[in-house]
Write a structure and sequence with these properties.
The chain is α/β, with parallel strands linked by helices and about 280 residues long. It contains nine helices and 13 strands. It has a seven-stranded parallel sheet, sandwiched between helices. It has a two-stranded parallel ribbon with strand order 7-10. The longest helix is centred in the first third of the chain and has 18 residues. The chain starts with 7 loop residues before the first strand and ends in a 7-residue tail after the last helix. Bound molecules: NADP nicotinamide-adenine-dinucleotide phosphate.
Amino acid sequence: MANKKPIIAVTGATGFVGSNLRKFLVEQNISVTSLTRKKSKPFKSEKNMQFADLDKISNLKSDALVHLIGTGAQTKESDYESVNVLQTQKAIQLCKRSNIKKIVYISGLGVNNSTTLAYFISKLKAENLIINSGLNYTIFRASYIVGPNDPLTQNLTKQIKSGTIVIPGSGLYRLQPILINDVCKMILAATTNKKLSNKIVDLVGPKTISFENYVRKFNKSKAKIKKIPLEQAYHTALNNPKKALYGVDDLSIMIGDYVSNHKKLEKLSGIKLKTL
Ligand SMILES: NC(=O)c1ccc[n+]([C@@H]2O[C@H](COP(=O)([O-])OP(=O)(O)OC[C@H]3O[C@@H](n4cnc5c(N)ncnc54)[C@H](OP(=O)(O)O)[C@@H]3O)[C@@H](O)[C@H]2O)c1
């Protein structure tokens, strides 16, 4: 029983983390059910459940729910409260209805009780709903998760194609990227490893790097690198969001310079993290 493979359900299954996680789990011969609001082609051996409202899902057979629904930018149709908070409330109810004992959630690195950033507040509220739910939980507070088609890579690739990469402000603020493959391993570990039960753990890679150095390493084709004043970056983000290279909250998180110690993650999971 102790070595039995878990059955895992995934919300936010169409997203960057969700797609990579499902592929990883299927390759490990784990039974996966993806929950999607749009029609989505399941991997071979994977089940797919389409939903209009998480509250309407019944008969979900799973040992754990990996809840990946989330947004990092608000619009009038999709704000933090309705996505990050309300959908987490619904995910918890789904677990209770379906007798799923374990929930794994990805919050953000930098979330804390005194935060004033709207994105972090919504993540904190989601965390608190999970902690008070009575479910067994693992909450990962993630830095930038990187791998094929991650949002940062997509953004920088697009900028390279345009000939110039823009660095807002000094570029000295740091990030601590973690590889998507390591994230998938951690999520799987969280579903069974008791050491990760009822814990909040920072999901960070083994090395910190300044944004400028990250961009310089990324910029293999040697596009021009241009620093712009922060005021200009925020002004575009606020007044011309469709054209902005970095959103308002993206900028705040970047400037926040959120880094952590990866040792706790390695110790609890027993998994050695890979450097980029
Ligand atoms: N990627 C990172 O570096 C990173 C870092 C820190 C935290 N996180 C957190 O990790 C989680 C997954 O991130 P990701 O990068 O995979 O995000 P993503 O690519 O933006 O995917 C978001 C997922 O949420 C779903 N979704 C959004 N609004 C929804 C709604 N109202 N109802 C139902 N589904 C909805 C999307 O479904 P549709 O396809 O139907 O739109 C999509 O499957 C998120 O909670 C994110 O905040 C990610």
